[in-house]
Structure formats: C-alpha cells, structure tokens
Amino acid sequence: MRDNDTWFGQPKGLTILFLTEMWEKFSFFGMRALQIYYMTKELHYTQAFSSIVFGAYAAGVYLTPIFGGLIADRWLGRKRAVIAGGALMAVGHFMMAFEALFFPAMVVIAIGNGLFLPNLPSQVPLLYPKGDPRAGAAFNVYYVGVNLGGLLAPLICGTLGEVYGWHYGFGAAGIGMCLGLAIYILGGKHLPAEVSRAVERHEPVAAGDGGGSVRMLVAVALAVMLFRVAYEQTGNTFAVWADAAVERQAFGMTIPVTWFQSLNPMFVFLLSPILVRVWTSRAARGRATPALERMSMGAIGVGAAYALLAALIVVSGAGGYAISWLWLVAFFGIFTLAELYILPVGLGLFASLAPKRFAATTIAAWFFCSFTGNLLSGFAGALWERVTPQGFFMLMAGICTIAGLVLYAIHRAHRSGAVALSATTPPVDQRA
Q1: Is 427 part of a structural domain of the chain?
Q2: Predicted confidence band at 186 (pLDDT cuts at 50, 70, 90)?
Q3: What is the dihedral of CA 219, 369, 429, 397, to 10 degrees?
Q4: How many CB atoms sit inside 10 A of residue 205's CB?
Q5: What is the pTM of this model?
Q6: Which 3 state secondary structure label does DSSP give 170?
Q7: Would you put residue 320 in left (φ > 0), alpha (ψ -120 to 50) or beta?
Q8: In a domain, 212, yes or no
C-alpha cells in the first residue's frame, strides 16, 4: 500500500471506522448515562422497575446483533447494514426527546444497533492484505475510538441532561450518531469493498472452525453471561448508590454523578497501552498468558472491585463518615484493569475463530452472550431495595468470582488450544 493511501501509518479506512465508532459510542453511552436517572427522577418509576427496564434494554441491544449479523452476511452486506442501523439509532435518540416515546425509542435504538454493532468491527480485518504487520495493532486503534466516545458521552450528554434538561442530553446523543453516520458515508471510498455473496458461500471452512472450538466458545459464552450480571451494575445499582451515598463535593462544586461514568473509558486510555506492552513483551519471551486464563483473572478482578465497595460501606458506616468520591476513582481503576483482561480478550477469541463468510454472525454471537447476562442484571438489580448495599455488592463479587473459576476450568480443559490463541487474540471492542 502506498504512503498516500494511509493516515498515521494505517489504512485510511481505519480512521473512518475509528471516528464512526467513536460517535456511535458517544450516542450509546450518552443515552445510557442518563437512562436510570431519567426513569427514577423524571418519570418517577420505582428503582426496581427502572432496574428491570434498564436491564431489558441492555439485553435487547445485544440480542438484535444476532439477526443483524445474519441479515448482513446473507443479504444486505456490511456497508448497507451499518448505514441502515445508524439511521435507525439516530431516529431513536431523537425520539427520546418526547416522554411518550420513551419505550418505542428504546426499541428503535435496539433494532438499529443490531444492524450496526456486528458489521462495523467486522470490516477492520478486511482493510489489510494477508501478512500485513500493521494488522496486529488495528484493533488497538479501533478500541481507542470506542472508549473516546464512551469518555466524552457522560461529560457532554450527562451534563446537558442533569443541568439543562434530560431531553437536551438525549438530543446530543442523537446528534453524535448523525455525525458518525455522515463520516461513514462520506468516507465510504476508503472502506473495503463488499465481498460477493457467491464467493463467501464457496469459501472453505478453516480448521479452527471445528466442533471443539465451537464447544469451547459456547462454554465461554455461558461464563460471560454470568459475569455480565454483575458487570452491568455500574450503570444501574452502582449509579443509584453513588448518587445517594457518596460525598461529591470538590473544587467548590458538586461533581455531577454522571461524570463518574467517564472514569471507565478514561482508565481504558491509561491502562491499555501498558497492558499491550506487557503482553507483547511476555509473548516475545515465550511467556504469553493464555487467553482464557486472562479472562479468568479479569472476572475475579471485577469481583475484587465490588468487594472493595462492600468493605467501604461497612467501614464508613462503623466510623460514621461519608464515602469520598475519590474511592469511586479507585473502584473504577481496579474495575477497568480487570475488565481489560476479560471483555476485549473474549471478543478477540470469537473474532479469531470466525470464518470469513460468517464474520458478522460470529461476532454477533459474542454480543448475544451479553443478552442473557444483561437481562438477568436487571432482575438482579431489582434486589437492591431488598438487601443492604454491602450485601448486594458482595453478591456481585461472588458472581464474578464464580464466573472466573468457570473460565479457569475451561482453560484447564482446553489448555493447548488456549495457549495457541493467546498469541493471536487482539484486544478489540468490548461493547462489548
């Protein structure tokens, strides 16, 4: 590839996908940062009902990609699926500006997300010729776009929603999706061409697509479903607790509670380069940590973050003082470090085993394993009002630990395959 066909040493198409994904995640997380507060404060739903709605929506956006992947692989193609999905999501976000359309808007966003989510990242590998050494870093660059959108969304949409009105925040999310869609359409000439359906149907199935790999991925998916029951509480019960129980006075102001949702992507920026460097160095010395072992460590680490919250509540209650917002920073630091060990690695595991003719469908299968977990997370969140906060967070810690032990058991059962995958699995989008 000629130098003038690249931007920043990578194919121009990667920048287009990066920016498209950044604005899509801006819209997704902008709406998500406001959702639980909008339901409890503006619509006056109970916490339990709001939690179930939050979980059902979070589940729905991971159910629809299964159908979106199939539709794209068999009929629409990746590009048209992304455009159609992005347009539907933009419409859904603007519908949020009308209180009566709150539930229909969530349905429209979920349908659009189903077309968009599996078909954008599946284009990244197609930007590179076989053997291109830059391909190994492609998903790292793409992942930055994911988290840049996630970082900006609570700061902009959250502030607009809390300070000026909920609908301003939802409207900003819709504008972000329109910007992403415009960038994708205008930059289409830099994206990979659609592969003929006939060519894909006659593509041979790789050896890695055998029954053993499928069984392993099914087992991994079940463990991740369990893990996500606890993982998704950061936008649900954790957000409710932080709003009510954490001292947020700093710098002469009260920190908007939605701002704390930006800590997770901020730590992704800070920690990802360090982890990639460490993992690359270990692999170069022949000491790469197997993918499933890393995922096990990640699940247990998220459990440790929830256990920290439970301990803080107990200690602060005994001492009679409020929990400082600085502890939320510490929580998200531990939470994010552990998250990087499980969710990006897990999606990379699915991507590395995906046959090209079913690339979008296989990646959608990873998101489907989030469907049940996210749905159950809403019902788990409904327990919040029935138990103590410290008891609830310890329950989440236990769920994460069990998921981690299951992943480690899968690693032991498929040790040779996991070791081989550890060197090739790229860190990619966990939203994931």
Answers
A1: no
A2: very high
A3: -80
A4: 11
A5: 0.75
A6: helix
A7: left
A8: yes
Facing residues of 11 across strands? 6
Q: With bands split at pLDDT 50, 70 and 90, how would you rate the model's confidence at 228? A: very high
What distance in Å separates the CA atoms of residue 193 and residue 44, rounded to the nearest whole number?
Answer: 49
* Confidence (pLDDT) at 139: 67
Which of the four pLDDT bands, split at 50, 70 and 90, describes residue 197?
low
Instruction: Please report, for the domain that includes residue 43, its CATH number.
Output: 1.20.1250.20
User: Which tokens in the block code for residue 39?
Assistant: 């339901």
Q: Which domain holds residue 120?
A: 11-200+207-422
In this prediction, residues 293-310 reach a mean pLDDT of: 97
Q: Is 252 left (phi over 0), alpha (psi -120 to 50) or beta?
A: left
Helix (H, G, I), strand (E, B) or coil at 270: helix
- Alpha carbon distance 298, 425 (integer Å): 15
What domain count does the chain have?
A: 1
**Residue 426 DSSP code:** P
Burial class (CB within 10 angstroms; exposed 0-12, middle 13-18, buried 19+) of 11? buried
Q: What CA–CA distance (Å, rounded) separates 258 from 351? A: 32
Q: What are phi and psi of 119, to 5 degrees?
A: -95, -20
Average pLDDT over the chain reads 84
The answer as to whether 113 is a domain residue is: yes
pLDDT, residue 317, reads: 86
Number of helices and strands (H, E) in the chain? 16, 6
Q: Tokens 């908007």 map to which residue? A: 256
- End-to-end CA separation in angstroms for the chain: 31
> How far is 297 from 293, CA to CA, in rounded Å?
6
DSSP assignments along 285-296, one per residue: TT-PPPHHHHHH
Using an 8 Å Cβ cutoff, are 245 and 322 in contact? yes
148 burial (CB, 10 Å; 0-12 / 13-18 / 19+) is buried
For helices 211-231 and 359-381, the axis angle rounded to 10 degrees is 30
Please indicate, yes or no, if residue 383 is contained in any of the structural domains.
yes
- Tell me the average pLDDT across 142-171: 87
